[in-house]
Structures are given as C-alpha cells and as structure tokens.
Amino acid sequence: MSYSPKTGAACTCRRGVERDNCPRCEGSGWQIDFAAIRAKHMKWRAYFPVTYNMSPIDYVVSDKPMESKEEEALWHYNKSREHDGLKPLAELPYGVEFRPLYHNCKP
Ligand SMILES: [Zn+2]
Predict the structure, then answer these.
(1) Which residues surround ligand 1, an ion (CB under 5 A)?
(2) Per-residue pLDDT tens for 5-34?
(3) Residue whose C-alpha is closest to residue 4's, from 77, 106, 84
C-alpha cells in the first residue's frame, strides 16, 4: 500500500467494518490529507511567450522533490531550443506563465 499523508486528526468512523470501508481514512483511523495528495500530484502547463528565436510553446510540468516545475519547464524549453540549434538558457525567459492543470487522479 502506498503512503498517504495524514492530517493528524483522528477519523470519526467507528472501528470495525465501518472503518475498513471508510474513504476518509482508508481504514487507518487517521484522516488522510487529500489536499496534500492533490498538491503533490498537481500538474501545471507552462506557457512560453513568443521570442525573437522561438514560437510560443507550452509544456506540462509538475513540482517534484528534486526538480521544481520551473526547472522542468526550462529543461523542456532548452531541449526545444537545442532542436532548433539554439544555445540553452540559464533561466526562464521573461513572461513565462504557469497555469494549474487539474486532473482526476486516484489518491
Ligand atoms: Zn475513517
């Protein structure tokens, strides 16, 4: 079973059958922090504006422990630049916009 973050609050379900079938705590007795799960699975679409060398382009990115969405977006952008024979950038160009993408993922 995968790890589910807990809110630290005890669940209101009763022990036994009710708890085993409880969607709020998944049988653990502690309420699961679904907001934290959603944040962890949250995806973003990064919109890059038109620049002198590049057409507008967008990528789907997410925040990870080892790599922020900004770093991931820059990595994708530099891959696209490389494809066009352009030098990689050290930071995101001015005007990049991140918009949240909501999707249904099973917590
Ligand atoms: Zn419960």
Answers:
(1) 11, 13, 22, 24-25
(2) 899 999 999 999 999 999 999 999 999 998
(3) 106
> What is d(CA 49, CA 42) in angstroms, rounded to the nearest whole number?
23
One-character DSSP codes across 4-36: --EEEEEPSSPTTHHHHT-TTTTTSSEEE-HHH
What pTM does this model have? 0.64
How far apart are the CA of 41 and the centre of ligand 1, in A?
23
pLDDT in tens, 28-80: 999 999 888 877 778 899 999 998 889 999 999 988 878 899 999 999 999 99
